[in-house]
Amino acid sequence: MSAKLFSANCRVFKHFKSCAGRHTSSFSTGTAALASVKLKGRSFLTLKDFSSDEIKKLLWVSADLKHRIKEKNEHLPLLQGKSIAMIFEKRSTRTRMSTETGFALLGGHPCFLTSQDIHLGVNESSTDTARVLSGLCDIVLARVYSHSTLEELAKEASIPIINGLSDMYHPIQILADFLTLQEHYGSLNGLTVSWIGDGNNVLHSFMMTAPKLGVHLKIATPKGYDPDNSVIQEAQRLSEKHGTQLVLTTDPLEAACDSNVLVTDTWVSMGQEEEKKKRLKDFAGYQITMQTGSVAKPDWTFLHCLPRKMEEVDDQVFYSSRSLVFPEAENRKWTIMGLMVSLLTDYSPKMPMMKF
Asked: For 146-164, b where at least 16 C-beta lie within 10 A, e where not — what string?
């Protein structure tokens, strides 16, 4: 980190001890320790509920499945005879395709349910839906508006529930992001990720995960678009526990300074269309360009969970060699596969553990 002073509108919760390298707190978890981590039967609503070792195990399983299936062309029917109910209140290309094709590739049967097929809490209560699906399938992925819907499903179901996106969190996206960064940089510990955009559900999941992987997080949001205060408090606690830095500012360049990774997302999510004109005005100056990257580390890269709009990032960055958005999108498949296998089986990776 440079000697540049932080501005008055910047909150710094934890500082680096040194910027000579990318290493912060020591991550000494060995292969045997991670191999002993068991996640079978768990629900996956938020990464807040998962420890450092549990997140690393999910990434390891995902990388292992990708290696064995994509690179070695192995046939792994690990979920043969199992089925997944996929509930979608909100449309999605990546979440549907990654889950549906991934579950089928593992030998299972995916069942896609739109809001026309299943009206959660309307023609049947979430409680009843959870109990019915528990007797008909092995796992549920639900992409919903309200996070409380997921909590009710998880409370009443006897099978694992996966958060495919809610208003509060998007944890399956973050698994893909960190697998992509691990593949690109070779390790995660000591990286600095800068979020430039809205204080939304994707950011909330970054905040619940980055410190546990030794990743520093710098966040720039316009005034009035801050992340949820309870998430900030928990991220501050995690930052202090794991010895990482958490910075909140309203200045995009301040957030990008000395960063390895620049990340943004849509400024106008589904359900916010009426706010579009105001939001575009409020986010003026937040577009990620090569000028934004000019203050980042020489090896800086770019992530976006897609779909992308021009106002969020220009073509020069989005289609550049620094952009990891398409490997990131592909990794949605491998990480959801790793997650589903981990929640439904006692699978142990065959490839050596990655360096975290």
From this structure: ebebbbbbbebbebbbbbb
Tokens of 321: 């060699």
Summarize pLDDT for 51-110 with one digit per residue, the tens. 999 999 999 999 999 999 999 999 999 999 999 999 999 989 999 999 999 999 999 999
CA of residue 339 relative to chain centroid, distance: 12
Q: Is the pTM above the cut of 0.90?
A: yes
- What are the DSSP E strand ranges found in the chain? 11-12, 83-88, 109-114, 139-143, 161-165, 192-196, 216-220, 246-249, 261-264, 301-304
Burial class (CB in 10 A: 0-12, 13-18, 19+), 182: buried
Distance CA 119, CA 295 (A): 48
Buried b (16+ CB within 10 A) or exposed e, 53-92: bbbbbbbbbbbbbbebbeeeeeebebbeebebbbbbbbeb
Catalytic residues: 305
Whether residue 160 is preceded by a cis peptide bond, meaning omega within 30 degrees of 0, is no
For 14-48, the pLDDT digits (tens) are: 544 433 345 444 344 688 999 999 999 999 999 99
Instruction: List C-alpha distances in Å: 3 to 6, 15, 29, 313.
Output: 9, 12, 33, 28
CA dihedral over 269, 271, 273, 278, signed as positive or negative: negative
